[in-house]
Design goal:
about 75% helix; single chain; mainly alpha
């Protein structure tokens, strides 16, 4: 074991956090991009190393200042957080590799160092949520990532991003406030903020009503942050009007981190201390998941804006993740964790393809891409693979998680057939909205090009990260052992906390 290995959980946050002010001080946009990308690559290398360590020795715990919890602040990385650290660092790195070409067309040159600094703060915040074992520090890192995300979304040329950011800010603030109220109630009952210590101390609390109220506040607050239907109103516009590479980054990981906190907090703290809470959790979230899958997929079918179409698809895919978690079983939680990982790759690929398209066409509307596959074959082929993964076609990453989700649904007795039907109907609806794009790009005649647009294949600098994402879709569809193992271990860990 290297002398650096025990410090990896802290370095996962420290590297991007400390690089952010340096990026601003450098001033030069090219140097700012290079430093930001280097920091993100370092974060990805740390995440990969953490996956290896967790696989060998199980959960890693790092005590800040050598003070043991609950008196000190602890960081921890287990299979669940290691899986999502790969998602966050990987999405950030691929987005930044594409940003070298894309950001120059969307963000003013003098503002780009500040843009990249905000990107690093978002990366540090999301990573911090995943490694901290403290309920209040989750809130702190959540706010760091959210404030940075507001800046990133508003950083592009489209002024429609401003009302979108305001809505995101308002709903995000309400969600964070609800979460903090819930944490405050638990702290009032236990006197600790460490999640493991909370679970133990809540067992000695006689009055369960404040705990149940806390669970309600935390669940609703995090559902707002995660854009769980019907609390998703901020997401479509935020994804649509953000700079294209920002959408790649946030769509791949932002909402999933909030779902991670929701699942982790509920299973680690509440499940063992509230009678029949597993049924309460399931009955609250399962109907919302089903409605999210069906309604959001239906809206996506009728969308003409390509980014908004994929944004509504994200609301539906969040439904699949929540559906798996609501089944309260090892297979269901495995499917939920696995779909977080696989959907990140699929949706990141699709949005990277749109980032390529945006270099040639000024309006990402369905009517503007008629026959465009002839001029941009590599870009549209990448979109097709991302779309196939969203549908869940065999040979792609999306198929693996949907297979696990169907397997989990079949374990549900009387609910098995209705749940399988919802999953299959949602997949058929995904076929429809993906096919609308493919049909227009490959088979429609001519292009409804806006005056001034010049259609040509995207540069290699942006096609390269796009096709890395394409190959990841295929690789994890054919050789899914790594995410399946991590997801299975995470599910066993979560189910071990049930009473």
């Amino acid at each position: 074991m290297s002398s650096w290995t025990p410090h990896l959980p802290a370095l996962q946050v420290v590297v991007p956090l400390m690089t952010a002010p340096l990026v601003v001080l450098m001033g030069d946009r090219r140097l700012a991009w290079a430093m930001t990308t280097a920091a993100s690559l370092c974060a990805l290398a740390i995440a990969i190393a953490l996956v290896g360590e967790v696989g060998e020795q199980g959960t890693m715990v790092y005590e800040m200042g050598s003070w043991a919890p609950p008196y000190g602040i602890a960081l921890g990385v287990d299979a669940m957080s290691a899986l999502l650290l790969l998602v966050v660092a990987g999405a950030s790195t691929l987005g930044l590799l594409a940003a070298a070409t894309s950001v120059s067309t969307e963000v003013e040159h003098q503002r780009q160092p500040h843009f990249y600094a905000a990107w690093l703060l978002a990366l540090a915040g999301l990573s911090g949520i995943l490694v901290t074992a403290d309920a209040f520090n989750i809130f702190v890192f959540m706010e760091i990532s959210s404030l940075s995300a507001y800046i990133l979304i508003a950083g592009g040329p489209d002024r429609r991003a401003l009302p979108a950011v305001f809505k995101y800010l308002a709903m995000g603030t309400i969600g964070a406030t609800f979460y903090l109220i819930g944490v405050g109630l638990v702290y009032m009952m236990t006197g600790t903020l460490n999640l493991a210590d909370m679970e133990q101390r809540l067992a000695d609390v006689g009055d369960a009503e404040p705990i149940l109220v806390a669970a309600g506040f935390i669940t609703v607050g995090l559902a707002l942050k995660a854009a769980i239907f019907p609390l998703h109103a901020w997401l479509p516009n935020a994804y649509t009007y953000a700079p294209n590479v920002v959408t790649v980054f946030l769509a791949a990981c932002a909402t999933k981190i909030s779902i991670y906190v929701l699942i982790r907090f509920d299973f680690f703290v509440f499940q063992a201390n509230l009678t029949e809470h597993d049924w309460q959790f399931s009955y609250f979230l399962m109907p919302l998941a089903v409605l999210g899958i069906l309604i959001a997929s239906a809206v996506a079918i009728f969308e003409s804006n390509l980014k908004r179409l994929l944004a509504w698809s994200s609301v539906a895919q969040i439904g699949y993740i929540i559906l798996g978690a609501s089944l309260i079983s090892v297979t269901g939680l495995t499917a939920s964790m696995l779909h977080m990982f696989n959907h990140s790759i699929a949706k990141g690929t699709a949005f990277l393809a749109l980032t390529c398209l945006a270099l040639s066409i000024s309006r990402l509307e369905l009517k503007n891409i008629g026959g465009i596959a002839k001029q941009m074959p590599w870009t549209m082929a990448a979109f097709v693979v991302g779309g196939l993964s969203l549908i869940g076609v065999p040979g792609t990453a999306g198929f693996i998680s949907k297979w696990y989700l169907i397997s989990a649904a079949l374990e549900m007795g009387d609910l098995a057939l209705p749940l399988v039907a919802v999953i299959l109907i949602g997949s058929v609806m995904a076929v429809i909205y993906v096919w609308r794009v493919v049909e227009t790009a490959y088979f429609a005649k001519g292009t409804g090009v806006v005056a001034g647009d010049t259609i040509r294949e995207a540069p290699l600098a942006i096609l390269l990260p796009t096709w890395i994402a394409v190959l990841l879709n295929i690789w994890f569809g054919l050789a899914p052992s790594l995410p399946v193992e991590l997801s299975g271990n995470a599910a066993e860990l979560l189910m071990g906390h049930l009473r």
